[in-house]
Amino acid sequence: MTSSSFKAKGDLLFKPGLLRNQGNRLMTGIAAAFSVIAIIPLIAVILFVLIKGFAFLRPAMFFELPPVPGQEMGGGIGNAFLGTFIVTGLSCLFAIPVGVGGGIYLAEYGGENKFSEFIRFGTNVLAGVPSIIAGVFIYGLIVSSRILFGSTFSAVAGGLALSVLMLPTIIKTTDEGLKLVPQELRWGALGVGASKFVTTIKVVVPSAIAPIATGVVLGIARSAGETAPLIFTAFFSPYWPDGLLEPMATMSVMIFNYAIMPYEAQVQLAWAASFVLVIMILAMNLLARWLSSFAQR
Fold first, then answer.
1. Which positions ≥6 away from 281 have C-beta within 8 Å?
2. DSSP line for 182-200
3. Rounded to whole angstroms, how far apart are CA atoms 54 and 278?
4. Which of 48, 133, 140, 272 fits a disulfide with 56 by CB distance 3.0 to 4.6 angstroms?
């Protein structure tokens, strides 16, 4: 073996003393430090809320109404806990059919025409609209107009406001999830005589059910903790839910109302509701990650 061969082989070895390698280590360290700094606020907020809220958590509070102002102890978040599920369930009822249907149209029928591009652009814009705008929109459309059988603030109005926030996530994830389905499955179904509709409903959509479900869960997690839209629509009630066309308490609005009150009992309930709400949103995000990893298997 010649000396030139030894020299060439030596040039391929890693040399930590070279300036470019030292610069690479420096930049890697800086990037890692920025990553840690970026995640510290999230960890700090979650830990602070969990520790502070857990101290005031009692199993009985899920079955009790909030105390009247001035009451020193007692009371619970039962009405807001139940109201959160009702309003979020209504938002799912409104948003999931429209969102999944819109995603199916974009992926399977829309193609790349101008209308589909307009829908995709509008979805991206809607995803960046502040949540309070959705609340003001539903307030002007439904609450102030009393179009829902003469009612004003109601759980239905709150569900509609949250559904506006859920739609972009569901539409985009459905669209992208259906694009991941192999084209051969469509050809096979069409080759045995199935129509386009049957192929989409019975072959394509079931194959993409995991990413579609991931989008639905992410949409729920996106809207479940919103406060501003519900202040304008569902408002708040210190009583148990009395119908879908009546004002209804939710945990996010309860936190907003009670955290700034000068009464210890209400402040404690705000911390407890914060703990429950954070746990719910964390659970939904973990479920979405599990569904996403399941879809990639």
1. 221, 224, 225
2. -HHHHHHHHHTT--HHHHI
3. 11
4. 272
Q: What are the structure tokens assigned to 188, written together?
A: 């096979």
105 near 117, Cβ under 8 Å?
A: no
Cα gap 173→171, rounded to integer Å: 6
274 is written with which tokens?
């914060």
User: Which residue bears the tokens 């509070």?
Assistant: 61
CA angle (124 as vertex; 252, 46 as ends), nearest 5: 35
Q: How many alpha carbons fall within 13 Å on the CB side of residue 263?
A: 16
Structure tokens at 69: 């102002």
DSSP state of 110: I
158 Cβ contact partners less than 8 Å away, ≥ 6 residues apart:
87, 90, 91, 229, 230, 233, 234, 248, 250
CA atoms within 13 A of residue 52's CA, in its CB half-sphere = 15
Instruction: Identify whether the C-beta of residue 233 lies closer than 8 Å to the C-beta of residue 138.
Output: yes
What are the start-end ranges of the H helices in the chain? Answer: 3-11, 19-54, 78-104, 114-127, 131-138, 155-179, 183-191, 196-199, 205-207, 209-224, 228-232, 251-258, 264-295
Report which of 179, 182, 181, 172 is spatially closest to residue 214, judged by C-alpha positions: 172
* Contacts of residue 65, Cβ cutoff 8 Å, sequence gap at least 6: 75, 76, 78, 79, 238, 239, 240
Q: pLDDT, tens digit, for every residue of 45-89?
A: 889 888 888 888 888 888 988 888 777 677 888 999 999 999 999
pLDDT in tens, 139-180: 999 999 988 888 889 999 999 999 999 999 999 999 988 988
Map tokens 């309860």 to a residue. 254
